[in-house]
């Protein structure tokens, strides 16, 4: 009988050790998720700042274009409207992504983080009571509690897997935002080139006023014929 009790105690201690190892792995996974979350937040902040810079540049660019050049080619106005709409859509998508990430934040102040930390503390407290349960001979209750702990661990693992999936989706969204920003940069460059071309055409089309030649006195020396021809061509 004593040998059977000792065997049960050894088996229980082994299961308790496995449970503690599972808890430690979950804590490490939680720390890793927090690091990845902070990294994603920094990347999102940088992308948002870049988009804001592009909006500022476009606003300044629109203010620097003369009103007359806008009337020369209506395509410029269409380009600005298209860029403005694309920027709005990109900003809306960025805000949605940031809101989704905030909802899954694992910080001590977030609801998800509080629930996870509460479960970890509960598991730790119950592990401390395992020794007392063994000494009192309540092995049946211990097996039931171990099964409950296993279920809790499985639930935490599933939650962690779901969080990792969401973070991977956010990585894909951030890559999409990067591609959109690169496309906007290319369109902005094309718009700058088009504006420079229009300004150059306007300068070429502006009439050039030539100064009227002064009437030479009668007693002046007669100018060469080539110079007179140049003056007549300029006058014509």
TrEMBL record:
Keywords: mRNA processing, mRNA splicing, Nucleus. Residues 9-23, 196-211 have a biased composition (Basic and acidic residues). InterPro entries: WTAP. It comes from the Eukaryota. The keyword Nucleus applies. GO terms for biological process: mRNA modification; mRNA processing; regulation of alternative mRNA splicing, via spliceosome; RNA splicing. GO terms for cellular component: nucleus. The keyword Nucleus applies. Residues 212-222 have a biased composition (Acidic residues). It holds the Pfam family Wtap. It is found in: Nucleus. Residues 1-23, 196-236 are annotated as: Disordered. Belongs to the fl(2)d family. This is CLUMA_CG012871, isoform A. The lineage of its organism: Eukaryota, Metazoa, Ecdysozoa, Arthropoda, Hexapoda.
């Amino acid at each position: 009988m004593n040998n059977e009790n000792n065997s049960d105690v050894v088996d229980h201690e082994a299961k308790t050790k496995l449970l503690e190892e599972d808890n430690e792995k979950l804590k490490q996974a939680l720390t890793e998720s927090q690091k990845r979350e902070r990294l994603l937040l920094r990347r999102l902040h940088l992308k948002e700042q870049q988009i804001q810079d592009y909006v500022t540049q476009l606003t300044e660019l629109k203010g620097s274009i003369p009103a007359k050049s806008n009337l020369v080619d209506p395509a410029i106005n269409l380009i600005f409207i298209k860029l403005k709409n694309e920027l709005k859509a990109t900003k809306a998508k960025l805000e949605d992504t940031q809101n989704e990430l905030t909802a899954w934040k694992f910080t001590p102040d977030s609801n998800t983080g509080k629930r996870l930390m509460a479960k970890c503390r509960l598991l730790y407290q119950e592990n401390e009571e395992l020794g007392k349960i063994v000494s009192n001979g309540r092995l049946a209750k211990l097996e039931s509690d171990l099964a409950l702990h296993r279920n809790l661990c499985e639930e935490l693992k599933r939650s962690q897997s779901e969080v990792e999936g969401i973070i991977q989706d956010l990585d894909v969204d951030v890559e999409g935002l990067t591609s959109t920003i690169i496309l906007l940069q290319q369109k902005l460059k094309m718009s700058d080139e088009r504006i420079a071309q229009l300004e150059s055409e306007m300068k070429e089309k502006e009439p050039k006023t030539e100064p009227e030649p002064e009437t030479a006195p009668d007693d002046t020396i007669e100018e060469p014929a080539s110079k007179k021809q140049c003056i007549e061509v300029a006058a014509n």
